[in-house]
Amino acid sequence: MIVPTIEAAGAPGYNTAVPESHQPETSAAPRTGGARPPVRAHVASLKLADFRNYSGLTLALDRRSVVLTGQNGAGKTNLLEAVSFLSPGRGLRRAALEDVARKDGAGGWAVAATLVNAAGPVELGTGLAMTPEGPERARRARVNHAPARATEALLEHVRVLWLTPAMDGLFTGPASDRRRFLDRAVLAIDKEHGRRANAFERAMRGRNKLLTEGGGNGAWLDAIEREMAELAVAVAAARREWVGLAAALIASAPASPFPAAEVALAGTIEEALAGRSAAEAEDDYRADLATARPRDAAAGRTLAGPHLSDLRVRHAPKQMPAEACSTGEQKALLVGLVLVQAQLAARLTGETPVILLDEIAAHLDAVRRAALFDLLEELDAQAFMTGTDAAAFAPLAGRASMLAVSEGRIEPGA
């Protein structure tokens, strides 16, 4: 068994990179083929430079899960955030990229990792590069030291899922939080989903601007609304597919300390797709947009579309809306949904995702903590877990790498 090695380091020897069809593209045929179990993808090394409270760090790991314990503010979540940047987007904190840079650093930052997946080892790098004018606005990515066209290229090699304390209010918070949760789940099985969702948002902003400024002619609006309709239906169809797959998986799963969830979508486009073709749904939405121009111009925004959809969750055994459940029940439902995300990603891509669980011991009793550890082992996924109390992770002794974090330094833990 490989013992983790940790060293404080200067800037690691890597650099960051230079910056279809509208039907959903779930990788329905696992890369491992047929009934073969998914391959365990795992982070074998992690390097940071000027990232949060780490001026430089090199962390070597084996394929086991990782437990990071220490006081609040020590840098545990910062390490999880670094791993979350091995996927597209703004990371698990959704922070402004310039805020990720170390306070006393030059303004840029970098994360590099050696990932081992079904194809073998691959070197991934990402970060925010500095220019004479300051840090760039978008982060860059490298794969095997070569520039990647976009951070979406990272999805070819690893899927990263996470659960953080900020998500504990998922069921009681705004619908936008649940859409974000759903879209990240879809992205784990459909690497084009993020591109389509972002393209819809850009087209919608363009339409809103034309309507509010009154400078757009009919032909311009027709073209934008045609694009919006195609993208909206593709986004909604991918969401519906994930929800259908998740519901089937939940229905077939054995009893667990984490209550089964009933999941459903509420949205005009998603409902229009029920029993209808994508072309019909596109035509209807395009016609609705054209009719709604005066209303949307007065409102200053588009009042119908997938940007307003919601993920509805119920506690199945109690037949109770998730938002009406207790704090502990909501946490258990949320953990269960993240495990469903991970199972679907593993089955449909042939590789297990890397799972980040920040302060996971909070609101989970000893029985559910032990059950979670066993389920992660059954899934055969590498998980990074944090907590202030090392005793809460005692069932993982010998099964995970135990690391202690203190003021940006990492040492082997008990």
> Treating each run of at least 4 consecutive H or I residues as one helix, how many helices?
9
Shape: globular
CATH topology of the largest domain: Rossmann fold
**Lateral arrangement of strands in the main beta sheet:** 1-4-3-6-7-10-11
The CATH architecture classification of the largest domain is: 3-Layer(aba) Sandwich
| CATH class (first level) name of the largest domain | Alpha Beta
Mean pLDDT rating: 89
Global structural class: alpha/beta
Q: In terms of per-residue confidence, which ranges show pLDDT below 50 for 5 or more consecutive residues?
A: 1-34
Q: In the residues, how many domains can be counted? A: 2
Helix coverage percent = 25-40%
Q: Summarize the helix and strand pattern as letters.
A: EEEEEHEEEEEEEHHHEHHHEEHEEHEEE
Classified in CATH, the superfamily of the largest domain is P-loop containing nucleotide triphosphate hydrolases
Portion of residues in beta strands equals 15-25%
Rg measurement, Å: 22 Å
| CA distance, first residue to last residue | 16 Å
For this entry, what is the oligomeric state of its chains? Answer: single chain
